[in-house]
């Protein structure tokens, strides 16, 4: 990326893009639907990207990427990578149908979701990636989000795609390694990248990396890979840090009562144990 993008101070999304595009190289076409990054990469005719960019409608990142992949292959450009790059709204919600279709067909594309856990560029409305208990402008403090975050990796793993992984801007080496791994594989590859948003998370801009790291160390956002929908590999072992330590740096959780935080802690511990058990199972393809 060139300097001079339009991201807010402390935004995790351009960091995520920088690590991924560095791994994929210049022979890459990036597909960007409506969302924060359609603004971040700057308006036409300007661009902060050093590779071709195709803007598309909100729900069409995966289908547009699939079409570009087919056109490149027909013209003998099979060595060009196609990266769909969408936020959680365009992935978990509006674009899920197109993503599911592409994954079911095992289209030869890489799909990167930079997850800031709400529709941030239109005013911080909740998405299905917004965690339980979080404040947004459509889930105000007295009526905070009362349903859990959708498990997008489980959905993609259910399609039995070759590669799905979580990643975080707080662990750049891990993120770069996963992007390189996705680069060297064929079929649909999916990267779910946690990218904090200071305005939406109501956090200090200088704490982006600290908060992202706490998300992993408290087991709220574990880092792991899923191979062929069967084999689970955990990449970072969390520490015994309570979720309250993660919450206290974000004003979007300040309204939660002690009992509510205890309930969230129980859910986080349960989901971690469930993931741990999955990682100890041998993949069906390995039997």
UniProtKB/TrEMBL annotation:
Any coiled-coil regions, as ranges: none
A Pfam family that the UniProt record links to this protein: TPP_enzyme_C
Signal peptide start-end: none
GO molecular function, one term: thiamine pyrophosphate binding
Thiamine pyrophosphate enzyme TPP-binding domain boundaries: 34-193
Protein name: 2-ketoisovalerate ferredoxin oxidoreductase
Keywords: Oxidoreductase
CDD domains: TPP_PFOR_porB_like (cd03376)
């Amino acid at each position: 990326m060139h300097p001079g993008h339009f991201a807010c101070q402390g935004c995790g999304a351009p960091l995520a893009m920088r690590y991924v595009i560095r791994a994929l190289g210049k022979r890459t076409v990036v597909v960007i639907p409506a969302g924060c990054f359609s603004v971040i990469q700057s308006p036409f005719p300007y661009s902060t990207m050093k590779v071709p960019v195709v803007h598309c409608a909100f729900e069409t990142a995966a289908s547009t990427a699939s079409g570009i992949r087919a056109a490149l292959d027909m013209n003998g450009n099979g060595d060009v990578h196609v990266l769909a790059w969408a936020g959680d709204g365009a992935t978990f919600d509006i674009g899920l149908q197109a993503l599911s279709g592409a994954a079911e067909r095992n289209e030869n594309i890489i799909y990167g979701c930079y997850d800031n856990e709400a529709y941030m560029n239109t005013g911080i409305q909740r998405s299905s990636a917004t965690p339980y208990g979080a404040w947004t402008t459509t889930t105000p403090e007295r009526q905070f989000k009362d349903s859990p975050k959708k498990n997008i990796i489980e959905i993609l793993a259910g399609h039995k795609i070759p590669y799905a992984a979580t990643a975080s801007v707080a662990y750049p080496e891990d993120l770069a390694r996963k992007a390189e791994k996705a680069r060297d594989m064929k079929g649909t590859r999916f990267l779910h990248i946690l990218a904090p948003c200071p305005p939406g998370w109501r956090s200090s801009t200088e704490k982006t990396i600290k908060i992202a790291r706490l998300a992993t160390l408290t087991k709220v956002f574990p880092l792991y890979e899923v191979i062929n929908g069967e084999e689970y590999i955990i990449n970072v072992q969390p520490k015994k840090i309570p979720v309250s330590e993660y919450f206290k740096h974000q004003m979007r959780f300040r309204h939660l009562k002690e009992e509510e935080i205890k309930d969230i802690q129980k859910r986080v511990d349960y989901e971690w144990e469930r993931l741990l058990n999955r990682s100890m199972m041998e993949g069906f393809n390995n039997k």
